[in-house]
Specification:
mainly beta; seven-stranded mixed β-sheet; 11 strands; about 50% strand
Length: about 120
């Protein structure tokens, strides 16, 4: 079992930056590919970014490619999502997730453990 706790959300103006953190506890953090998803009001949850177990491979949704960066720190058992050039369309609750699969999972059903989410609001 893995417990995930997100932090770092908040209110930011368009063009600004935020860094989300997801602290993992429980089983060995490095065993799991990690991902970030988001859910905007009235919309389904969507994939944002993912990183493999070793941190050597990443994958991004087209909507955030070039603006967001996912990374992980094995010592701190934490995965990060650096978000730059934020847009109002990025407003959503952001969720961290851990997968028991290999590679860089990008589908919601590939993930087994979820955090509670953190709100990101981008004002225009």
């Amino acid at each position: 079992q893995v417990q995930l706790v997100e932090s770092g959300g908040g209110l930011v103006q368009a063009g600004g930056s935020l860094r989300l953190s997801c602290a993992a506890s429980g089983r060995t953090f490095s065993n799991y590919p990690m991902g970030w998803f988001r859910q905007a009001p009235g919309k389904e949850r969507e994939f944002v970014a993912a990183i493999n177990r070793s941190g050597t491979s990443t994958y991004y949704a087209d909507s955030v490619k070039g603006r967001f960066t996912i990374s992980r720190d094995k010592v701190k058992n934490t995965v990060y999502l650096q978000m730059n050039s934020l847009k109002p369309d990025d407003t959503a609750v952001y969720y961290c997730a851990a997968s028991e699969r290999i590679g860089v999972p990008r589908y919601e059903d590939d993930y087994d453990y979820w955090g509670q989410g953190t709100q990101v609001t981008v004002s225009s």
